[in-house]
């Protein structure tokens, strides 16, 4: 039999900033998890500033160690749309990837150097392109047809717009592909071909040739995104090798050298719940960077492109934010029936959609009394009307009771962004822990917030109905 402290120790990775103190309390940096809940309520996202900074620095160092030119590590804000998280990363020097006006504005509200920011998206609006032009950020184009739209924005705003072109990378090695991280197998190139993003090599050549005739647009280079398809290093090598081959082929055809290679996201984590197991994580970021960059660089050098004159722009999301947040939640009713035990907690599928919808296997633990033996098995479930199973068959101390605090690790990525309002559950607050201090960085929604955008037409309103809502 093990204790929750021992189980936690077994899954900790570098830079988690989690430990168990002598009293068996879970510590996030220098704060007790139970004290943070006491002060800010439950459920609650709790970020560690040290983890955010450490992850960024490790990713930056990993790419700088293997790439001879400049490196711009861009945080993919979609994975964690929090302005204070952005502010911490800006303080570290991070660039950013954004989609749409809200992500552009949130990126700049947290702090951004426009030269390090790219706007992605397959159907950008005139408003988005004008804003990108005003701010001076790079537009990653996704179609030959997009050139006219970006050109129009350059002419409307009187600005020269830096642009990259997103390539559709379909490595020959993916003809027979079984993913270790995703439920896919077979000829994965067909999946990538139908995937809406990126352009073919021939399209890219025509785009580069046309861009050379347009002084309003400054073609700087390329973009491609690996995604979550596999954690195996050989697949990073296959993808980035093919990316390099395509870049080389366009250079050979046009004679124009890129200044930027945006390497996209998809950098996995050593404890990677998305792989549907706490055991099957990714390789250390240093090995991912060395493998991907090595494969890319080799193909560029084959055609005489000098990497030292090109900047690489990796766009990690989950690598930076994934383990930087825990979800803390109080235990409510502990139910025993039909031979099972259910621990009802206040957190739910609303706040942890990756677990319930995508099968992520996050480590879940009690956050106090962690030196007790975990001698009972229980399902940890959320309070909503769909199963909302946060942990199945978890070993917990037999005397775990209402009011105890539990923690779900790796709640920093695609949690807030993919949260749902099923059962109209308001979304929780977020807190940033820094050493022995904690700041509220997002207040919890109220139920009025949940309904704030709804309008009952006058002809349907009855005396008294909805008044609570409109009064707030
Ligand atoms: C263009 C782009 N860049 C970066 C990311 C971040 O990916 P990840 O969180 O896997 O690093 C994504 C995620 O889908 C993306 O679409």
Short description:
The chain has 472 residues and is α/β, with parallel strands linked by helices. The protein is 33% helix and 23% strand.
Write the layout of secondary structure elements.
Elements: H1 4-11, E1 18-20, E2 26-28, E3 31-32, H2 33-40, E4 44-48, H3 49-66, E5 74-76, H4 83-92, E6 95-99, H5 100-110, E7 117-120, H6 126-135, E8 138-141, H7 146-157, E9 161-166, E10 177-178, E11 185-186, H8 188-194, H9 201-211, E12 217-223, H10 233-254, E13 260-264, H11 285-302, E14 311-314, H12 318-321, E15 325-337, E16 340-345, H13 353-358, E17 364-366, E18 376-381, E19 389-396, E20 405-408, E21 429-434, E22 437-442, H14 447-451, H15 467-471
Parallel strand pairs: 4-21, 5-6, 6-7, 7-8, 8-9, 9-12, 12-13, 13-14, 16-18
Antiparallel strand pairs: 1-2, 2-3, 4-15, 10-11, 15-16, 15-20, 17-20, 18-19, 21-22
Helix pairs in contact: 3-4, 3-11, 4-5, 6-7, 9-10, 10-11
The chain binds pyridoxal-5'-phosphate.
């Amino acid at each position: 039999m093990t204790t929750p402290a021992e189980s936690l120790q077994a899954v900790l990775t570098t830079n988690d900033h989690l430990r168990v103190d002598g009293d068996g309390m879970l510590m996030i940096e220098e704060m007790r998890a139970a004290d943070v809940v006491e002060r800010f309520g439950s459920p609650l996202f709790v970020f560690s500033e040290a983890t955010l900074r450490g992850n960024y620095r490790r990713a930056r160092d990993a790419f700088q160690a293997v790439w001879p030119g400049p490196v711009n590590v861009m945080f993919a804000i979609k994975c964690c749309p929090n302005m204070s998280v952005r502010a911490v990363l800006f303080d570290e020097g991070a660039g950013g990837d954004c989609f749409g006006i809200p992500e552009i504005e949130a990126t700049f509200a947290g702090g951004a150097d426009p030269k390090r920011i790219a706007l992605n998206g397959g159907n950008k609006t005139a408003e988005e392109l004008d804003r990108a032009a005003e701010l001076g950020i790079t537009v990653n184009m996704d179609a030959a047809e997009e050139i006219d739209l970006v050109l129009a924005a350059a002419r409307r705003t009187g600005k020269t717009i830096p642009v990259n072109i997103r390539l559709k990378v379909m490595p020959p090695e993916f003809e027979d592909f079984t993913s270790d991280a995703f439920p896919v197998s077979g000829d994965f190139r067909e999946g990538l071909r139908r995937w809406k993003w990126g352009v073919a090599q021939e399209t890219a050549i025509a785009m580069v040739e046309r861009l050379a005739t347009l002084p309003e647009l400054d073609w700087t280079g390329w973009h491609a995104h690996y995604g979550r398809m596999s954690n195996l290093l050989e697949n990073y090598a296959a993808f980035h090798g093919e990316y390099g081959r395509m870049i080389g082929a366009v250079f050979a055809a046009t004679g124009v050298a890129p200044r930027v290679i945006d390497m996209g996201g998809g950098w996995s984590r050593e404890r990677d719940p998305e792989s549907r197991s706490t055991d099957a994580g990714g390789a250390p970021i240093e090995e991912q960077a060395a493998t991907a960059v090595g494969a890319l660089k080799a193909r560029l050098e084959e055609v005489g492109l000098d990497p030292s004159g090109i900047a690489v722009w990796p766009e990690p999301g989950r690598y930076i934010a994934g383990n930087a947040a825990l979800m803390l939640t109080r235990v409510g009713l502990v139910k025993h029936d039909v031979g099972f035990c259910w621990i009802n907690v206040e957190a739910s599928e609303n706040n942890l959609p990756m677990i319930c919808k995508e099968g992520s296997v996050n480590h879940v633990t009690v956050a106090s009394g962690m030196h007790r033996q975990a001698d009972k098995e229980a399902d940890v479930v959320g309070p909503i009307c769909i199963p909302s199973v946060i942990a199945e068959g978890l070993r917990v101390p037999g005397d775990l009771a209402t009011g105890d605090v539990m923690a779900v690790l790796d709640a920093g990525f695609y949690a807030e962004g993919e949260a749902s309002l099923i059962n109209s559950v308001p979304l929780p607050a977020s807190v940033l822990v820094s050493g022995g201090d904690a700041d509220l960085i997002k207040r919890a929604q109220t139920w009025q917030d949940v309904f704030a955008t709804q309008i009952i037409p006058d002809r349907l309103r009855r005396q008294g109905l909805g008044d609570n809502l409109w009064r707030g």
